[in-house]
Specification:
Length: 373
């Protein structure tokens, strides 16, 4: 796949367009008054769990922070900027101790406590759309992760968040791999061989979202390293109580990431509680002519406060040619209230790598997320 010739966009042109938008907003502004103050509120969450993991040779019980929706806090502020536009800020940071994305079997300690930025941005919004500046979601972030199942706190297309740090072993109990494809010498972890090929996540970027075009929204962003993201999103109620959400995102990694990528997802929730989610992705690496692919399918049922789901994920050729990774998960989430959820998931992971006999990695994660609003 090569979409570069189709989507190539001049970086100076994008920057100039954003500047013109900002000038238009500024031209309509009026003098600040007391009632134009930007006010902010604090919210956040704690999300902790216990992970039971087995790699075919060793097993362990690990106390973790669930990286599907990490422990975090945020300040969100908004105020009037002009008669027809608003201005706002988002400051969101996470503080994880023993993230599920990083812990491994036989760690035997509390791991690291990572205080990291998620969003540090300001934005202007009006009838002309929304302009966001600073650390925040790139335009394509989340396009492979649309999910109406109500179980995303424990399972969604980004399956590496729940147990991604666990290493595979061969059937004789040995680690295998190389530093350039594992992130840790001699180990291949789940997160090294799986990706849902979402956007470039959160970064220091300039982003513009168009006004809603009926149920459709479009966005474009550019970040350091001359990377560009484009996306289209759809959200629509279908009949009484049913809903569909979909997204498609394209990424040119520029000098920041050596690939071009296309990914998307669609999720449907029926008023009966049954729901289905599909996602796909393709990454075209700049060197070597190599491509990697991902597919994801999830079926679920919402029975009041209890939500159940089963999913399947497959990623091929991500770490190296010939790799075939598959995962099946079975999850449950009890939404006690808007603030309190309790969840559990069983997931099995299988890697086929030419010339290596690899044992499956199995895990159970049980935990709870409590939000303060």
């Amino acid at each position: 796949m090569n979409t570069q010739s189709i989507f190539r966009i001049s970086k100076p042109a994008l920057t100039s367009a954003a500047a013109l938008i900002a000038m238009q907003v500024g031209a309509s502004a009026y003098a600040a008054e007391d009632d134009k103050t930007v006010t902010a509120k604090l919210s956040g969450q704690i999300n902790r769990g216990v992970l039971f993991a087995d790699n075919g040779t060793d097993s362990d019980v690990i106390h973790v922070d669930n990286d599907n929706s990490s422990t975090r806090f945020r300040f969100v502020g908004e105020g009037n900027f002009s008669e027809s536009s608003t201005v706002g800020i988002t400051w969101e940071s996470q503080f994880e101790s023993n993230s599920t994305a990083n812990v491994d079997i036989n760690q035997n300690n509390d791991g690291s406590s990572d205080f990291t930025e998620r969003k540090l941005e300001l934005w202007y919004k009006g009838d002309w759309g929304k302009l966001s500046v600073g650390q925040g979601d790139g335009a394509a972030n989340g396009t492979s992760e649309m999910d109406l199942s109500g179980t995303s706190v424990v399972m969604y297309s980004g399956i590496g968040d729940a147990m991604g740090g666990i290493s595979f072993k061969t059937d004789d109990g040995a680690y295998f791999g190389a530093p350039d494809d594992t992130g840790a010498a001699g180990r291949v972890r789940i997160k090294n061989v799986f990706s849902d090929f979402d956007g470039l996540s959160r970064n220091d970027r300039l982003r513009y979202d168009t006004p809603a075009l009926g149920p459709i929204g479009l966005a474009i962003s550019t970040t350091n390293g001359d990377a560009i993201e484009l996306t289209g999103r759809l959200a629509q109620d279908v009949g009484a109580g049913s809903r569909v959400e979909a997204a498609l995102g394209w990424v040119d990694g520029g000098d920041r990431s050596a690939f071009e990528q296309l990914g998307g997802s669609l999720s449907f929730l029926h008023d009966s509680g049954f729901n289905a989610t599909v996602a796909f992705g393709n990454r075209d690496f700049d060197e070597g002519g190599r491509e990697a692919d991902n597919a994801y399918l999830k079926l679920g049922y919402n029975a009041g406060a209890h939500r159940f789901a089963i999913d399947f994920a497959s990623t091929d050729d991500l770490s190296q040619d010939g790799d075939e990774f598959e995962s099946v998960g079975l999850g449950w989430n009890w939404r006690h209230s808007n603030s309190v959820e309790i969840y559990a998931i069983f997931r099995t992971h299988r890697l086929d790598r030419p010339g290596v006999n690899v044992d499956d990695v199995n895990g159970v994660l049980i935990g709870s997320r409590v939000k303060f609003l």
